[in-house]
Design goal:
Length: about 55
């Protein structure tokens, strides 16, 4: 599920892309951020500070 409570399949549908594309992109993000679960990725993103000047 994403932050809005949607499944990956629903998020892909809403984005107008194939489920397989969404999963592939998500797996790529997991590798790059050294996370394994969506909850870990969300925790990492929440820990980031916004850039100064925005």
């Amino acid at each position: 599920m994403d932050g809005a409570g949607r499944s990956v399949r629903e998020a892909a549908e809403d984005a107008g892309i194939a489920y397989s594309t969404m999963r592939s992109n998500l797996e790529s993000v997991f590798r790059k951020t050294e996370t394994r679960q969506q909850s870990q990725l969300v925790a990492l993103l929440r820990s980031l500070q916004p850039p100064i000047g925005n």
